[in-house]
Task: inverse folding
């Protein structure tokens, strides 16, 4: 069966992995509804979504740990829906890295190769190579308990890389690490991705992590795909309300459309071509400029300022009671709490949300 690439603009390049109509029911509960997704060869695609949206279930179906209720999975164009886990060319890294506590780092990493009965010399060579890749050469003879959480996670990654799978699945692998370590590991994962050329499917519920890491993001909500696109596409042109609210901060106005205006409880805003009844308008906090109260599309009172170094976030309460988030770049005098301000923006910064 020829596979139509639904999301790829690069017609003719066949995807590494194609999910077609994958559905998963647990009893009467549907946790995945007819998922269609193409993952391109060599890309890092993130499954992003709130807890319970079905990310882990989809990943487990891809690696073969869970059987779908219906639908198919193609890898390199082959139907592998029913192929056993150990015959798939897929490596998996989980959040709870599950290293063998009584084996050294080197032995932990060698384990998958021993299972595959590779010659000892080849095993030694490959283990040294991946230890180097994850910067852990100096810990080769230690036991896992003598390593930090971040180092243990890198051993788990090395143990997956060592048998050179062409697809690597990572389920919230950085979830247990503190922020600074997580950011360091994100950079390492990007580097390893470049060096190995592997296709990576990375799961996270953290939108900042997804924006930082991904070639493309597949945003999931309640067992369906809300949007697939580059981080920039999703941030700048959210396909729907869920995308607009889940990725980044957003201000959304709703109301009836009349005489070319969106008449919201918060004030009137010029409508945008293509708007339909029920659509809202969204503006990101960084696109709002503070003006004199009379000069904005709407006006309000600053109720909170949160200084964050590179920028400052302000909350502005409108008369309607709604709070608007505004981001001011560093260097602009910060409007003090209690001051009356107008909110202004360029029409080009406005997006329709459906
Ligand atoms: N073995 C199972 N039996 C019943 N329900 C399950 C099972 N595994 C997952 N679920 C349900 O499926 C939904 C999606 O779960 P999951 O894929 O783990 O989401 P995520 O990884 O996005 O947090 C959740 O509501 C979860 O409770
Ligand atoms: Mg999960």
Result:
């Amino acid at each position: 069966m020829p596979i139509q690439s639904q999301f790829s603009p690069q017609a003719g390049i066949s995807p590494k992995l194609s999910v077609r109509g994958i559905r998963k029911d647990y009893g009467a509960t549907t946790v995945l509804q007819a998922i269609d997704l193409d993952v391109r060869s060599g890309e890092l695609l993130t499954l992003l979504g709130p807890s319970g949206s079905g990310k882990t279930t989809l990943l487990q179906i891809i690696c073969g740990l869970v059987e779908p209720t219906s639908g198919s999975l193609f890898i390199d164009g082959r139907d592998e829906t029913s192929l056993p886990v150990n015959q798939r060319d897929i490596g998996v890294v989980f959040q709870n890295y599950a290293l063998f506590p009584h084996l050294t780092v080197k032995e932990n990493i060698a384990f998958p190769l021993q299972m595959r009965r590779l010659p000892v010399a080849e095993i030694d060579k490959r283990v040294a190579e991946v230890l180097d890749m994850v910067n852990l050469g100096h810990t080769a003879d230690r036991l896992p308990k003598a390593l930090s959480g971040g180092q243990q996670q890198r051993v788990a990654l090395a143990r997956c890389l060592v048998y050179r799978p062409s697809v690597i699945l990572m389920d919230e692998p950085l979830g247990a690490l503190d922020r600074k370590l997580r950011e360091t590991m994100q950079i390492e994962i990007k580097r390893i991705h470049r060096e190995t050329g592997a296709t990576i499917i990375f799961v996270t519920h953290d939108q900042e992590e997804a924006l930082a890491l991904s070639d493309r993001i597949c945003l999931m909500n309640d067992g369906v795909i809300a949007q697939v696109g580059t981080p920039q596409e999703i941030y700048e042109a959210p396909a729907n309300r869920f995308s607009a609210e889940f990725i980044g901060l957003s201000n959304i106005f709703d109301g009836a459309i009349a005489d070319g205006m969106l008449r919201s409880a918060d004030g009137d805003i010029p409508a945008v071509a293509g708007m339909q009844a029920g659509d809202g308008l969204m503006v990101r906090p960084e696109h709002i400029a503070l003006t004199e109260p009379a000069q904005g599309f709407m006006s309000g009172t600053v109720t909170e300022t949160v200084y964050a170094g590179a920028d400052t976030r302000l909350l502005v309460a409108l008369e309607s009671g709604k709070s608007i988030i505004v981001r001011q770049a560093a260097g602009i005098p910060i409007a003090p709490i209690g001051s009356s301000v107008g909110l202004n923006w360029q029409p080009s910064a406005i997006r329709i949300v459906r």
Remarks:
- DSSP finds eight helices and 21 strands in the chain.
- The CA atoms of residues 24 and 250 lie 32 Å apart.
